[in-house]
Amino acid sequence: MDSKELEKQIEVAGITTDPIFNWVIEQDYNCRDLLRAILPELNIQTVKFETQKRLKFHPSMHGVIPDIYAIDNYDRVYDIELQMTQQNFLGKRVRYYFSMMDQSLLMKGKSYRYLPPTYLIFILPTDPLNQNLYRYDGSWHIKDFNNDPLQVEQKLVLLNANRNKGEITPRLQNFFELMHGRINTNDSFYKKTLKNTKLIQKEGKNLWTIK
């Protein structure tokens, strides 16, 4: 995509377009606040992150480019994927993304004990399991055991922006509203991300050049 095409796309698109989503999440504390909205139980205080970080370890391998790749103050690692088209073979994609994350986290000579917990988060336009739920949470289980007895510590979160069953935080609900272009000015995170989105729509070319 050349610069003129990108500029035109930014002017008419919303936060669900990759360049806008990435830029908005880079502003202020938006990345941390989005993770807090998705995973409030983790008590995330700070995050370090990159957008469009390339994970590829050999020229012949299929590479992965996470939309948002983040590490929090407890060294937990997150890959946030905004996928606004129907994804084929989602389960295989999940498997491969987890494997690429792990390859990037363990250096030669290091013990497996140093692999941190990883969270793979997909924000999807349709329901991947047709249960009309806002979210689906997955992790490793072994029959007749509770939780994660082997401490694999891989967590999957599938978010469905087009349904209305199940419990999610009000802040995450407001983010879904923003994705759909609906107005809700009662939440500070919503107002901040909406302001950031409008700013890049208006000044996209200059902001992208600065970045």
Helix/strand layout:
Blueprint: H1 3-12, H2 18-26, H3 30-38, E1 47-51, E2 68-72, E3 77-82, H4 90-103, E4 118-124, E5 135-139, E6 154-160, H5 170-179, H6 188-210
Parallel strand pairs: 3-4, 4-6
Antiparallel strand pairs: 1-2, 2-3, 5-6
Label this structure with key terms.
6 strands, six-stranded mixed beta sheet, 211 residues, alpha/beta
- Helicity level, as a percent range? 25-40%
Structural class by helix and strand composition: alpha/beta
- Number of E-state strands: 6
Give start-end ranges of low-pLDDT stretches: 6-12
Q: From the structure provided, what is the oligomeric state, counting identical versus distinct chains? A: single chain
| Terminal Cα span | 17 Å
Mean pLDDT: 82
- Share of β-strand residues: 15-25%
Which series of helices and strands comes N to C?
Answer: HHHEEEHEEEHH
The geometry reads as globular
Query: Can you tell me the number of structural domains?
Result: 1
Let me know the largest β-sheet: 6 strands, mixed
Radius of gyration: 18 Å
Instruction: List the total number of helices.
Output: 6
Widest β-sheet, arrangement of strands: 1-2-3-4-6-5
